[in-house]
Amino acid sequence: MLKLRPIRTEADYHAALDEIERLFDAEPNTPDCDRLEILTTLVEAYEQRHYPIVAPEPIEAILYYLESRGLSADDLEPIIGSLGEVTDILNRQQALTLEMIRRLHSSLGIPAEVLI
Hints:
Elements: H1 10-23, H2 31-50, H3 58-68, H4 77-80, H5 83-90, H6 98-108, H7 112-115
């Protein structure tokens, strides 16, 4: 059984992952489940420090959301404005306005912080 302590090295990290895998099916409200929760918290903290996930660029996020939902640039017209504006936005020739960001967030569910 792995001793609970801060994860400082890659070896510590991999040992914690192995222990998490071993404990993955722990019954709720048991010492093993508590241990699993503590280890996942430690691993998350280590990953945030050493493997941060960078937010996508706003236009890349829009394109991803369109593709993942089977939508096209034409579907952005009611959200952004004219097809010309949509084209300018997607070609990075015009910046998103605050109102466009609000509508993209409410219509497509794209997190506003990704679009700002």
